[in-house]
Each structure stands twice: as C-alpha cells, then as structure tokens.
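wait is this the right file?? whatever heres the structure
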C-alpha cells in the first residue's frame, strides 16, 4: 500500500486511513485509524490476536514453520480488514522474536511476498523510545519524572525520562513467553518453578540501577502492554475487557502482591 494524499478545496488534506501493525513475540496487533490533517485521529478498528510467533525462539533462535504459518494467517486477516476499511497506508514493525531469530529475514520476506506487508524490525532502543512516546502522548503526566515499563513476550523495556525526552532506556531479554518457556513446565505452576522464575527476574532487576534505571521517590511508574492491563482488568473484576476502563487506571503494589500471592 502506498500513501495517497487527498486535498480538499481549501488545500488541506482530507482524512486518510492508516493501519499500524505490531508483530510481537506473543501477540500481533493492528490499529486502524482515520487521521486528520490536524494530527487528531479516530480509531476505526483495534485488532489483536495471540499468535506465539516467538514460540521456541529462546531455545532454537529460529521462528518455526508452524509459528510463521499462524502469523501469516492472522496478518492476512488483518490486511483484509484494512482493505475493507479503505486503508491507504500500512506500517508494520516487529520486536523481540524478529530481532532474535536467525531466520528473521526469511520470515519477513514471506510476509512481504505472501501478504504485501513489509515489517521493519525495531531495535530494543527504538522499541523503548516508542513506548515512552506513547505514554507521553497518551497520559496527562506533564512535568513528571517517569519510569515506563513495557513487558512484552520476549523482552522488557525500562525507560526513564521526562518532558525533555528519554534520559535512559534499557531492554532486557526477559518477557512473558521467554520466561514461561525457560522456567514453567507444569500446569498449575509448581511452587519450585515459581520460586526459580522469581529468583531469575530479581537477579536481572538488581542490575538496573547500575544501568541508569531506578525507581526512586518522586518517579511515576507507568506500565504498558498486556501484563499490566490484565492486572488492572482483574483488579476491576471486568468480565469483558474495556480499554476505556483500563487506560489511565491505577493499581497499587499491594494489589499486585495480592493477585500474585
């Protein structure tokens, strides 16, 4: 798809329809919007599907044929919806799984040839910067020191910054899918597995202060992505997920401890 500019009689661009794909380690997202020349936008559709593209990548450093097929099926469905809604421009990025996999180029070539979707792989630093920008634009947190935490399927980003921008960003190879594959082999989870998992996480978190990431007093902690939205939804006892009820909500450390204990 190529960007098309539509100009009205006043010389202003009329609303254009664009889609933004996030090809993650566990989930594929697609946000379809109508953007006005003022920069304001209206959401036309917000698609999400758990695909598990990064299943096994932590051990093999390869995206499996099965995972690739699942991704192609979902991406094709999302692209079809884009066409139905008259999308003129599609932008797609990939994160941890596509960063790590040795066959990433081959998989992305398949996406391009089979679906017409060109997926650009973000570095950990780029992913962190976009996460921070989303918080700045999406929440009323002006004049605050922020520590943004973005837990994904394959990696987690920690971004410290303020109105001037990002001061420090760190991406670590610890995400929900990667950690599950490394440490969790029972259902329900055995206590020993959980303890080993927590120890590994604590060990990695202990390195953050020396890397410029700390949660000292006065810093607003902002969590984004599914781990945090799920915690908030559970705390609110939502039977059906509601973005409007979750976005900008607050959850205390005590409430989180109660949920995971």
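ok assuming it is, sequence goes like this
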């Amino acid at each position: 798809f190529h960007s098309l500019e539509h100009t009205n009689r006043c010389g202003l661009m009329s609303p254009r329809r664009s889609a933004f794909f996030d090809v993650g380690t566990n989930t594929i997202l697609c946000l379809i919007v109508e953007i006005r020349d003022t920069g304001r936008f209206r959401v036309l559709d917000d698609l999400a599907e758990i695909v598990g593209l990064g299943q096994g990548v932590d051990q093999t450093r390869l995206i499996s044929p099965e995972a690739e097929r699942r991704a192609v099926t979902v991406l094709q469905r999302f692209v079809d919806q884009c066409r139905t809604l008259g999308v003129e421009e599609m932008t797609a990025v990939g994160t941890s799984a596509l960063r790590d996999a040795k066959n990433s180029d081959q998989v992305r070539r398949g996406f391009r040839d089979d679906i017409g979707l060109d997926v650009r792989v973000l570095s950990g630093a780029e992913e962190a910067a976009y996460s921070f920008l989303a918080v700045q634009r999406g929440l009323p947190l002006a004049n605050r020191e922020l520590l943004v935490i973005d837990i994904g399927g394959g990696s987690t980003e920690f971004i410290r910054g303020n109105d001037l921008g990002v001061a420090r960003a760190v991406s670590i190879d610890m995400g929900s899918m990667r950690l599950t594959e490394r440490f969790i082999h029972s259902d329900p989870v055995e206590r020993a597995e959980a303890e080993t998992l927590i120890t590994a996480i604590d060990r990695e978190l202990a390195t953050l202060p020396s890397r410029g990431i700390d949660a000292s007093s006065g810093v607003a902690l902002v969590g984004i992505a599914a781990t945090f939205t799920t915690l908030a939804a559970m705390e609110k006892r939502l039977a059906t997920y509601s973005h409007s009820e979750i976005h900008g909500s607050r959850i205390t450390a005590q409430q989180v401890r109660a949920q995971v204990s």
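The chain has ten helices and nine strands. so i think its the right one actually
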